[in-house]
């Protein structure tokens, strides 16, 4: 076993130019953990936020970015027995708190799952974070039900692509917002039945039109990565009993809200992060993902949407591309 490995680090807060390839010790698996030889890591907005200095890793976690990987089990920590699905050579993907942009990473077995049948080892790196985010927020937190109307902002990225497919397979009617005709057509191909150009259309009006067969039109659930900029309009777009789930703040963190509008709709605002959740919660989320989402992949209701793949040594270029907002689906780093 190697003693050292290549890993990505941020030399300071800033743009992609702060990304550096460094040499780090290979981590050792602790109790209930496995050591994974990384095949690929998925890029996420949290990685960019960490790079910009506004979203540090949880206390005690590695400063190496990367919240999801796929790869091969090469070592087991105490308490992880042979025959539990984590034997040497097992192909797995894992949800992490940090450390994925490296040649090796340790992961709790409770957050590590087999690569779904029919998915390549590299493509599997783009599944854990998106699947866990969508399922935990929309099903476990918001309690969305088949037949309800969902509005997704930012529909062409990794989270949006997964939300459209998972929720469509779950029986939910999905509307999306996007910035270009190409991105909206991409969302429609994934299963969205209402697509909204937010630069040319009012998404509040479009959602009300899409639900005008109801006594009180509006979205049942909204999945939002924008935050402050959309807060007031999101509340206006909710139907009675609607739930607004905020998982990002690309449009700012502070906004003013007329609570009477929320109360009139008997609405709720749910704000979550995934990275800092306790290990027990992440384990429960990944158990549900394996139970409910993985069969969607097996039955071809959900496909892996890898947009572009970069080598680990091209991490800077991968962030430049991610920051451009041009990607549709997941951007991955492969260990080259």
TrEMBL record:
Keywords linked to the UniProt accession: NADP, Oxidoreductase
InterPro entries xrefs: ADH-like_C, ADH-like_N, ER, GroES-like_sf, NAD(P)-bd_dom_sf, Quinone_OxRdtase_PIG3
One GO molecular-function entry: oxidoreductase activity, acting on NAD(P)H
Signal sequence residues: none
Keyword Ribosomal protein: no
Enoyl reductase (ER) domain boundaries: 14-333
Matches recorded under PANTHER family: OS02G0805600 PROTEIN, QUINONE OXIDOREDUCTASE PIG3-RELATED
Protein name as catalogued: Putative PIG3 family NAD(P)H quinone oxidoreductase
Organism of this sequence: Zhihengliuella halotolerans
């Amino acid at each position: 076993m190697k003693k050292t490995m290549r890993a990505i680090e941020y030399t300071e807060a800033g743009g992609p130019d702060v990304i550096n390839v460094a040499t780090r010790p290979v981590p050792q698996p602790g109790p209930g953990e496995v050591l994974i030889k990384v095949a690929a890591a998925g890029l996420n907005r949290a990685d960019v936020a960490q790079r910009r200095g506004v979203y540090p890793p949880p206390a005690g976690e590695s400063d190496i970015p990367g919240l999801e990987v796929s790869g091969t089990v090469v070592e087991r920590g105490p308490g992880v027995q042979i025959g539990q699905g984590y034997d040497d050579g097992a192909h797995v993907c894992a949800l992490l708190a940090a450390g994925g942009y490296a040649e090796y990473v340790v992961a709790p077995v409770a957050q590590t799952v087999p690569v779904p049948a029919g998915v390549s080892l590299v493509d599997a790196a783009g599944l854990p974070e998106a699947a866990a985010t969508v399922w935990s927020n929309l099903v476990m937190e918001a309690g969305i039900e088949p037949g309800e109307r969902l509005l997704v902002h930012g529909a062409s990225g990794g989270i949006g692509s997964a939300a459209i497919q998972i929720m469509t397979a779950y029986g939910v009617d999905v509307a999306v917002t996007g910035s270009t005709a190409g991105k909206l057509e991409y969302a429609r191909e994934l299963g969205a039945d209402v697509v909204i150009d937010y630069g040319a259309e009012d998404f509040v009006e479009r959602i009300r039109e899409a639900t005008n067969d109801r006594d009180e039109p509006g979205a049942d659930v909204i999945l939002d990565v924008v935050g402050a900029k959309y807060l007031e309009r999101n509340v206006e777009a909710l139907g009675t009993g609607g739930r607004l789930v905020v998982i990002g703040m690309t449009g700012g963190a502070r906004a003013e809200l007329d609570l009477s509008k929320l109360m009139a709709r008997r609405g709720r605002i749910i704000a979550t992060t995934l990275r800092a959740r306790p290990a027990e919660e992440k384990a429960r989320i990944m158990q549900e993902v394996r139970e409910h989402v993985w069969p969607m992949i097996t039955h071809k209701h959900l496909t892996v949407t890898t947009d572009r793949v970069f080598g680990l040594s091209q991490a800077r270029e991968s962030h430049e591309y991610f920051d451009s907002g041009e990607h549709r689906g997941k951007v991955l780093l492969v260990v080259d």
